[in-house]
Structures are given as C-alpha cells and as structure tokens.
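Deviations from the work plan: none for this task. Representative record:
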Amino acid sequence: MANLDQIDRRLLAELQNEGRVTNVELAHRVGLTAPPCLRRVRSLEEAGVIRGYHAELDASQLGFAITVFAMVSLKSQAEEALTEFENHMRGLPEVREVHMLNGEIDFILKIVSRDLQSFQEFLTSKLTPAPNVASVKTSLTIRTAKYQPGVPL
Amino acid sequence: MANLDQIDRRLLAELQNEGRVTNVELAHRVGLTAPPCLRRVRSLEEAGVIRGYHAELDASQLGFAITVFAMVSLKSQAEEALTEFENHMRGLPEVREVHMLNGEIDFILKIVSRDLQSFQEFLTSKLTPAPNVASVKTSLTIRTAKYQPGVPL
DNA sequence: GGTGAAAGTTTTTCTCT
DNA sequence: AGAGAAAAACTTTCACC
C-alpha cells in the first residue's frame, strides 16, 4: 500500500470526480504549484494507484437501454473452474463487470445490452452455456439512482 | 437519443477507454484534425452523452479493502417509499451505486469500506435502519475479475 | 519535496473552404 | 462540417532552494 499524504488524497479525490481537470487547476485546488503536482500525479500513475481515466457515457443516449445484474453459481468452485469462467467472461463485451463473491452466489455480473431481445439472445447463447455454469438469475435494472464509481475518499 | 455518426462512436469509445487522451491524438485516431474533433467532444459533453471523466483508483492501495454487494428489499414499493430510500442512500458515502431492480430484490447496492469492522458498523447503524428497509442480504467481493465501466461500443 | 522560469505541446479561436 | 494558421493556455523540464 502506497505512502500517501493528505495532498495525495485530495488530489486523488479531485481526479476521481473530475478526471480531466488541468494540472494547473488541480495544483491550485490542492495548494501546490504545477510541477510538484504533476510529479505526484505521474508517480501515482506509475504506482498503479491511478489505474486509468475514463469518460462516463450516457448508455441510453447511445442506444443501450438494458442493464442487467446476473447472479451466477458454478458447478465447481475449484480455482481452475473459477478462472476458466472468468477468462470466458473477459471475452464477452456485454459483460462489463465480473465480481467473485462469497456465499451461495459465486459471481455477480453487470451486463449492458441494446434491448431486451439482444439481452435474451446473449443470455441463452453466451452466458448460460459458459463453462461450469450451474445457475443464472438475472434482474433488470429499472433505474440507477446513484452512480459514483470509485472509493469514498 | 443523440444523432451520432461513426466518428462520434469511435471518439466515444476512445474516451471511454482512455479519458485523458489529448485532443490532437484523439483527432488523429478518428481521422480528423484537432478543431473539428474538439467541437464534437464539446458538443457530446453539452448533450450529456459524455457525463463526465473519472480517474479509476486502486481501492486496496487506498486502504479500502472491502467491496460488498447488498441486496435490499423494502417494505413498500410505492414510488414515494422508493425515492425516500434512494435519497437516503445518496447521502451515504460508502454507498457508491444504487440500482433499482425488478423482481424480489428491490435494490442492489455497491458498498466500499475500509475493513470488515467499519463495514459491519455501517451495515448495522446506517443501512439496516434506513427508511423502509425490510431485508438486506450482503455478499463480500472476493476479487473483481473484470471491470470495464461503461458500454460495449 | 517545493519553486520559478523557460521550452515544448496542446487547446482553442478565427477565418476560410 | 472540416482545415490551416495563430493566439492562449497548459504541460513538462530544468536549475535552484
């Protein structure tokens, strides 16, 4: 775990909220001048504390009306079976997130599709037949009331 | 839904993957010069197709070891009860995502905490006593095998 | 680890097509 | 809408504290 001071934390909080803020503005907000601020950002990127930057897009305006959470149980929980399933999921573009959980459900997936039809097609032809799958329960997202990716800095 | 051509889609795909790419580089990748490329990006921001930019941070390096999915059922599904619950959740920084679902479970929440103790504290003192909550089932994330926020452009 | 100034890029505006 | 040139702003390096 990286050694981070208060300035680093504020800097990361700013970048998490506003990933394209300019370095001068960022420096100003955290009380530094531009060069040391940039050095800190670069070093946080190097260290992998900052994993990358992403534009957040409006799925519905792009024609992706359907967001689904799928709870998946596997037939075997052997490490080999788990990683085979994970690798398979990495190859499916509709599957945006794969989280391995404790308890009854082995994985929760976040799936984004254009419409119900293409989701059903995906479910029956791609997800259910994936290696080791015992059961899949899906829930449609009616609406997303809060979406603040990241950590509560 | 916005009128988007192929150039817009490629541009959005690039920004979703690499949110801090420079405008000149972005222009080059989509086959434009810088000025029209910037005009397109600004207009997509204006239209809300681009909702914002975020740095993706490594939660564990920042001392947030615990990611939990909580499945919440409410006592009432009247719209007023739903929005009251949602508004309450918006005020809790540990709760990063709130998705309303169809079926048995009313909401799925993504919660990020520093450790098990602070999560338990949060669960018993903040989440379970929230207005209208009938039941909460939580699952700890063992590992996240895929995390590609956004849409499959 | 921070500062100030200078050099190199990039963003942004303007004008033209 | 897109292109090229010019102005403004930002990033990045350097020498110094």
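Residues 2 and 48 of chain B are 9 Å apart (CA to CA).
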